[in-house]
Write a structure and sequence with these properties.
CATH class: Mainly Alpha
Helix content: over 70%
Shape: rod-shaped
Radius of gyration: 36 Å
Strand content: under 5%
Distance between the termini: 60 Å
Number of strands: 0
Order of helices and strands: HHHH
Number of helices: 4
CATH superfamily: Outer membrane efflux proteins (OEP)
Structural class: mainly alpha
CATH architecture: Up-down Bundle
Number of domains: 1
Length: 157
């Protein structure tokens, strides 16, 4: 891209000559330098604003990416704990039936029951983790913008 030559009118030349004639050169230099520093400061503030904006956007993309990655992992965890819970339930039913028939001692039935409750609790914690991850994904996508920060923080407690 080429720069075009500026056309200067005779009136502008005359006004410039008048300014240079009546204003001391030191004041002109000071004004030119102050204008330059104002320009540089405005340019720097603009660059800082752009950098801050870019950092905010990158953070938002990273948060969404992390939440989506966790979602797949958490869903697999919940499915595995569901199968573990079902397996523990079957073992508890079989152990209780064996105790009633007199094949196994009561301690084995109690142990199977404890394992079943542990599996139920692990499954519930997995579902809680999945729900919390959904909330984080919703928040990362900007879904909490309708509520003030104080309400969103107290709702999580």
């Amino acid at each position: 891209m080429r720069c075009r030559r500026a056309s200067v009118s005779p009136t502008q030349v005359y006004l410039l000559a008048v300014v240079f004639r009546f204003v001391p050169p030191s004041i002109l230099v000071a004004r030119i330098f102050s204008a330059f520093w104002v320009f540089a400061a405005c340019l720097l503030l603009g660059l800082l604003a752009v950098a801050t904006y870019q950092k905010t956007i990158q953070t938002a993309f990273r948060e969404v990416s992390d939440a989506l990655a966790r979602q797949g992992t958490v869903n697999q965890l919940v499915a595995a704990r569901q199968m573990q819970k079902e397996s523990a339930a079957d073992a508890f039913v079989l152990s209780e039936a064996r105790y009633r028939e007199g094949i196994d001692p009561f301690l084995d039935a109690l142990d199977a029951q404890r394992n079943y409750y542990t599996a139920q609790r692990a499954f519930a914690l997995g579902r809680l983790t999945a729900a919390l991850n959904q909330v984080e994904l919703y928040r990362a996508l900007g879904g909490d913008s309708l509520y003030p920060v104080s309400l969103a923080a107290t709702a999580g407690r």
